[in-house]
Amino acid sequence: MTNRLPLDLMQKWKTHQFWIRQKPALTRSALVVLSRLLDRQNTKTGRCDPSVIGIVEETGVCERSVRGAFKELETRGALKRYRAERRSRNQFMIFSVAELELHRNVMKQKVRGGARTGLQSVAAPCATHCRSNLQPAAPETIKETKKKKGNAEKMCVDKSASCGDTERPVAIEFGLGDFEQRLAKVFEREGYGYEGLLTLPAAEMETVFGKLRSGSISFNQAAGKMLDRYRVEQDRL
Prior knowledge:
The protein is mainly alpha-helical. It folds into 2 domains: about 10-135, Winged helix-like DNA-binding domain superfamily/Winged helix DNA-binding domain (Arc Repressor Mutant, subunit A), CATH 1.10.10.10; about 140-235, no CATH class. It contains 11 helices and 2 strands; from the N terminus they run H-H-H-H-E-E-H-H-H-H-H-H-H. Strands 1-2 form a two-stranded antiparallel ribbon. A hairpin with an 8-residue loop joins strand 1 and strand 2. Helix 7 (about 140-165) crosses helix 11 (about 220-235) and helix 10 runs antiparallel to helix 11.
């Protein structure tokens, strides 16, 4: 255990207020246990080793919640637990606001320098404690997702062109220019390019767009009709 001087009454009050204002907030049981530990610290020696049963009796919090509060407070950086011997009680060192700010600045310097911060670092940003749980998707997974999405869209358009779309048609609100841009993407995905769309009569596009705008057909059905018309024209050449 460290020989650090015990916290005085003002330091205890500031420490308690510091953790009340933190976001995300500590759980109610953690705040109750922290208040009890601050009160049980010896003002002369700094020793703080109340038993779990003693805290349960004094606070009314169940034993499981008290042990969970110990873990939460240590993970968040409010205190440090020590045990001199295997069967001895936990001894707690509660950090003052000044120590918390000092540790926070050290963590910031480590982050700026590219060093990794530990999960038990005092007053480190909360996101740091969750960093190990955040697993970014592998590049292969992203490629596979894009490929599956493209195949699904292609299958939907092909199905619309051959046997009609089962999607319920709804009236749309975008203009003819937006419709042309969306059709261009479909033609490019099919390998015909925007030039292929330009070979079709403008009147044909306007007719299909009118049906789409009225809600009688869906966009997939409209795209399928335009693809069918293009393929028919290519077969005639």
